[in-house]
Write a structure and sequence with these properties.
With 208 residues, the protein is an alpha/beta fold. Helices cover 28% and strands 22% of the residues.
């Protein structure tokens, strides 16, 4: 809201509900084009990933009312853990499955990680399994293998997928040459955190 307000109080031309195209930029005669088209959730070829009860993490956060009572979150990175915690706080029974041996392994280790871990351990309906390789999504459960290769299943009504993001780099690069100067910012360059995306935008804006 703060950033939106900062834009609105300045003399900035804003076009909503408008899909930009390279031809549009060329026709406008702009000096510089800065694609910030972002990224989309990655969906690896896990059997059953396109079933109707499967959603991405952002959808579970924006529309928690569409999530069932028993939830499996595939992917225990920082986003997956946060999505699971959000649902657990809303009374759902959540199980997070993570392929490596640690939840939220990419989180900042100094100070933050210990507080983060303490927060999810304090939620009685938040559960997790590490070293878990998902093998399939069924109508009523998710199957995975542990590090010994033994297969298990977790019953669920809803599956939340949090397996990273895929940068829309090709779409962003289509704007190259539509203005005299060109620079990528945010997730279309490389999937990143909000802080990293904002820093890339700040750096480009100060190089103009």
């Amino acid at each position: 809201k703060y950033l939106i307000h900062q834009v609105e109080k300045r003399d900035i031309d804003i076009k909503l509900n408008t899909r930009a195209t390279p031809d549009m930029i060329r026709a406008g005669g702009f000096d510089m084009v800065i694609p910030a088209v972002g990224a989309v959730p990655a969906k690896p070829p896990i059997p059953g990933i396109d079933k109707p009860h499967v959603m991405v993490a952002t959808q579970s956060m924006i529309h928690p009312e569409t999530v069932g009572q028993n939830v499996v979150v595939i992917g225990g990175g920082e986003v997956g853990v946060e999505a699971g915690m959000n649902l657990a706080k809303k009374g759902r029974n959540v199980t997070v499955l993570e392929m490596v041996d640690k939840l939220a392994a990419e989180s900042t280790m100094i100070h933050y990680y210990s507080m983060f871990e303490e927060a999810w351990l304090a939620l009685p309906t938040f559960h997790s399994h590490v070293n878990a390789t998902v093998t399939g999504i069924q109508d009523d459960c998710v199957t995975y293998k542990d590090k010994e290769g033994v297969e298990h299943s977790v019953p669920c009504d809803t599956v939340v997928v949090s397996l990273g993001m895929k940068a829309l780099t090709e779409e962003a690069l289509s704007f190259y040459g539509s203005a005299d100067r060109f620079a990528l910012i945010g997730d279309c360059q490389k999937p990143a955190t909000v802080q990293q995306a904002m820093r890339s935008a700040f750096a480009v804006s100060h190089s103009v």
